[in-house]
Amino acid sequence: MxxxxxxxxxxxMQAYYISTEDQRQVExxxxxxxxxxxxxxxxxNGFDSMVQLKLVGDIYNDTYAMGNTMRNSETVRRxxxxxxxVQKSGNKTDISTYLSDSRGYEIIHHLLYKKGxxxxxxxxxxxxxxxxxxxxxxxxxxxxSGISSALFSGSEERMRLHRIRSVWSAEGRIESIPLEDxxxxxxxxxxxxxxxxxxxxxxxPVNKFFPFAALEDMENHIFWGVQIACPASWQIExxxxxxxxxxxxxLADRDFGHWYKEIPKGGEFSxxxxxxxxxxxxxxxxxxxxLTAYALEGLENAPxxxxxxxxxxxxxxxxxxxxxxxxxxxxxNAIKDKGFSYFxxxxxxxxxxNIPWDESMxxxxxxxxxxxxxxGKTAADIRRAGMVPGxxxxxxxxxxxSEAYHMEEHLIxxxxxxxxxxxxxxxxxxxxxxxxxxxxxVIRLLKMYDFGYMKIDYNETIGIxxxxxxxxxxxLRQNMECSKRFIExxxxxVNGIVLENCASGGHRLEPGLMSxxxxxxxxxxxxxxxxxxxxxxxxxxxxxxxSQIWAVIRKGDSIQRIVYSLCSTFLGRMCLSGxxxxxxxxxxxxxxxxxxxxxxxxPVIRKGCTYRFxxxxxxxxxxxxxxxxxxxxxxxxxxxxxxTFRGMVPNEIEITIPEYSQDKTYSIxxxxxxxxxxxxxxxxxxxxxxxxELEAVTVLIQCRTHFSxx
Length: 710
Hints:
About 20% of the residues lie in helices and about 35% in strands. The chain is α+β, with helices and mostly antiparallel strands. It folds into three domains: about 1-295, Beta-galactosidase, Chain A, domain 5; about 310-520, Aldolase class I (TIM Barrel), CATH 3.20.20; about 610-705, Immunoglobulin-like (Sandwich), CATH 2.60.40. Helix 11 (about 530-535) links the parallel strand 30 (about 520) and strand 31 (about 545-555). Helix 6 (about 325-335) packs parallel to helix 7 (about 375-385), helix 8 (about 430-450) runs parallel beside helix 9 and helix 12 packs parallel to helix 13 (about 585-605). The two termini are about 50 Å apart. GO terms for molecular function: alpha-galactosidase activity. This is Alpha-galactosidase. Keywords: Glycosidase, Hydrolase. It holds the Pfam family Melibiase.
């Protein structure tokens, strides 16, 4: 039988710690505050620990678990609850639950809450207090159990899993699947394990899926969700045995991610953090808003210049990997005094003549041909033009045309051979020589030329892992942790540096790396018509204040096309590139109007909640229909960004403003469109009259609430 041993009110969430009568294991149940629970509905035998780990040699879970899941192994069954300690410091609370194994192992489960936040952080520690080494082959960051079953009886056709897919230049596609389609309903005899395990293997943590999952009770409108802060291989498991449904995840285990780790006598190991939340709502977007609020912790410590989300110019889609003192000078003459704050010199500044930029990384010697007077002069020219100079690095790799490519003793190996992709090899970031080399090549250059912005790119994945540790997966984990430490060195040594997280566009958009940097490249879909679709998708997994969205302007672009491109950037951080030295005055007038509009909507981008409307878009390359994104900000400000795509576009589109009530009135503050008469607000509705395919409009609305005297 189960019993509640502790419960905590954490903002609008309620956490229950549930144990067996003999207080052996502990479950964690998280529900919206105010909901009533009945733990008797969680089943009689299917106890599911909030700590999930497995040691080599211990017995697997029963009934078809092996190769499917390592959850609820003998390691878990041996655990016994010891105590719970609550530590409070200011507005922060750490609930630490101690469990032990008679063999000499201690596990500490941490649940962290910061007052006023809509999420919790969870991680676990393993301490080996035995007389010999222990080998972990699975150790997850979090596990939530009793999902839905503790609240309501019956689960047929009521629950579904949301996860978010990602491929290059089409990031963030949501997938919503009923549990029955995943075969996560129980059989006639509920003894068999049901488990849907998914994740990503390699050093691009958003290459296939985002480290995100949500379970939805569709009948009662409750969502449970998680993001995992992990720069390497990770996994998430939706698990069922009997009626109780569980969600867990963290580092990819031995089965999934080729990971196991030896913990010596007296040693310890901690998992990555998971960000979790639960809420009531009508859309998974409400849950996503709560999870992405975690980014605000990092943004609080961002350089002061970042407070207003300044506009970026990046020359990549102007020079296509061939920047030079000459062409940068021409660009500066065209864009100075137009409101840009950052000017980023992208890839290629180091390349030799006739060698592609993506085969030359690693040596990072400034090209004398491209910059005959040195890079310092160009950086100074950027500052004289009123902008902060930025520069691109791919710090962790070496291209095949570089000398670094042949420094094999300092490169990652797999099975004793240098790990090589088509054109890249990888520095072993655990090697002190490599750290010293990169300090000289990267950090010293940043300081020498007074760069205030750095774009950190990463354009290949290591795969399952590398040599140098007890397992390939552990080698990968160690390497990526050392990469993160080098990023911290950059921030420590280059005061006020603004960092951009890029990996072939959006392949590194995970919470851990995002917390280290100010913003991220949202995608490599630089000038595609699907940009607003991808940009809107990413509101579910990264905060829009960190999502750098490109508008690439071409000399042949119509005013309609310019508006379409600029409106896309209003879904995050504005970045421009393209044929800026060849634009007409009419084109510049519309661009500058958009830049002015962007600066007015920054407060809504920084703090707001996103709602989606529009067509069910299947093809991203050939989208049909329309999309409307409404973001409710503070002080009554509302932002609406609408795009039409191809196909049958309706003559009139009406969107009911979220959170509408009869005591509210709405008025338009400003419109950005080719023709501002195309949109109006009436009552609680936004009404848009599109005239063509591939057009857009953005409107800033003021909401006022009227209180009646009773």
